[in-house]
Amino acid sequence: MNKMMMTEELWCLLNMKKTSYLSKTVEELKPSGIRRFFDLAAGMEGVISLGVGEPDFVTSWSVREAAILSLEQGYTSYTANAGLMELREEISAYMGQSFGVPYSPKNEIIVTVGASQALDIALRAIVDPGDEVIVIEPSFVSYAPLVVLAGGKAVTVNTKKENDFKVSKEELEQVITSRTKAIILCSPNNPTGTMLGREDLIGIAEVAKKYDLLILSDEIYAELSYDEQFVSLAAIEGMRERTILISGFSKGFAMTGWRLGFVCAPEELTQAMLKIHQYAMMCAPTMAQFAAVEALKNGRGDVEDMRKSYRRRRNYFVHSLNELGLECHVPGGAFYVFPSIKSTGLTSTQFAERLLLEEKVAVVPGDVFGESGEGHIRCSYASSMEQLQESIKRIKSFIERP
Amino acid sequence: MKLTEKELEIVEILEKDARTSTEDIAKMLNLSLEETEGLIKKLEESNVIVQYSAIVDWSKIAGHEGVTAMIDVKVTPKRGVGFDEIAERIYRFKEVKALYLMSGAYDLSVVVEGKSMNEVAHFVSDKLSTLDSVLSTTTHFILKKYKHDGTIFEQNDDDRRIVVSP
Ligand SMILES: Cc1ncc(COP(=O)(O)O)c(C=O)c1O
């Protein structure tokens, strides 16, 4: 028939790929390795999961009750962009009392949809195309993708088990260039559980000052530190002005599903983030904000009880893993243990997959947190003692199997 | 008696689950097995830990459902011994599961368990109200136990978390 039409059809077919609606950035973004593991574990029965990155506690009843009350009273509309003033005042008092870093409720605090959104607006507020942001690995899986989505370049630094996964000044300096804008810091750390002490922070602060860098300090696990008093980066001399402090209610207050966090920073940075927040989010969910007010007013005793409970489980789990020959450093905070599985001769992924299929224990292979996580697995001890005991039995039978 | 931090933790752990093994407690508290055994012994001997028992939901056991009553008792205290003497006379009855001296409208709160309402009624009328110092009793029967000693009886504590998350 007609030659013309044929070629047109052919042309369309050939160009199918080209007409993708997706942005290059998103197309090139790798899906999280956690996701793959989730798909593998989700369909199985009788799995003990040590792969969960959230508390095993349900939010305190008084907090849940406060949210119910707010609904009964009809508080179902938007709040101010930066969040309820009452909540910002509570956050301000809390940050001052608990960590010695007061921020002004008026213009230095934004209530966000989880620490996740706080990270997003912080990065978008500071990154110009091509700017570099340093991500210290093994790291929380969202940092590098969020940097990329903000138009920046994520530059990774590897840390080592010998140093308890702490980064040194020298290691940082090696990757700093003229395009470096910021460092993302996470202490206590997901996935390693490592907590940085005052001395460690002072070292990093010196680098930041020397090269005039900002630090995004993810302090979401601040409440969960077990051996030493937690030190906020913003409390280190000269750091408040170059710190964007990110925290929230998910971990310490066991409120992951409420999607509530906050970001504190000097006014100029806060106002820049607020611009993004007001257009992209309007405000954090109102009922969750009411819940958070109650959490800060009356929920600190519960946080203390949970901390105690995690500490006991951490001690139990670290002892038990070390007895099995899966060496790990004692993580000072969060609820993760990051043992080495090198003695088994397996890779992280092999270990995690086989452990799941053969013994029905879900852990997260360390390499999903960056290449320096290879040779390790992340186990969360936010599970009941019975489950932890049973998982230790299963891991034992797994590694003793020829 | 002042407890050390570790002793306090042992008490908390055992109060929550008296069957936690000594090995596990040792690991949880970074203590050696011997140290832990020693501390538990000390707590037992000093009667800080009085007894280990299980919380049983008798309502689930056919033929053994039983009834529990809380009885408010007004008494006349005796010179010199106050309420202690009459309290002792009452708590020695094996039917009495708990006894507390109260502030407020009455003096003693007596928890009594029996096989039937009749049995409890008999105890109150025959044994309790006939005591010299007892002025009056008000008996309340427990209809349903929702929570006892910090334990919720019908708790749905399924883990609702997704199996793997960041
Ligand atoms: C280090 C770290 N930062 C941020 C988050 C996100 O927390 P949120 O629930 O507040 O968004 C997590 C959660 O896993 C985390 O581990």
Automatic annotation (TrEMBL), chain B:
Which SUPFAM superfamilies does the entry link to? Dimeric alpha+beta barrel, Winged helix' DNA-binding domain
Key word Transcription present: yes
One GO molecular-function annotation for this sequence? sequence-specific DNA binding
Instruction: Name its species.
Output: Robertmurraya kyonggiensis
What are the alphabetically sorted keywords of the record? DNA-binding, Transcription, Transcription regulation
InterPro entries, per the entry: AsnC-type_HTH_dom (IPR000485), Dimeric_a/b-barrel (IPR011008), HTH-Siroheme_Decarb (IPR050684), Tscrpt_reg_AsnC-like (IPR019888), Tscrpt_reg_AsnC/Lrp_C (IPR019887), WH-like_DNA-bd_sf (IPR036388), WH_DNA-bd_sf (IPR036390)
Fetch the Gene3D superfamilies from UniProt: 3.30.70.920, Winged helix-like DNA-binding domain superfamily/Winged helix DNA-binding domain (1.10.10.10)
Ranges where the HTH asnC-type domain occurs: 3-65
Protein name, per record: Lrp/AsnC family transcriptional regulator
Instruction: Extract the Pfam families matched here.
Output: AsnC_trans_reg (PF01037), HTH_24 (PF13412)
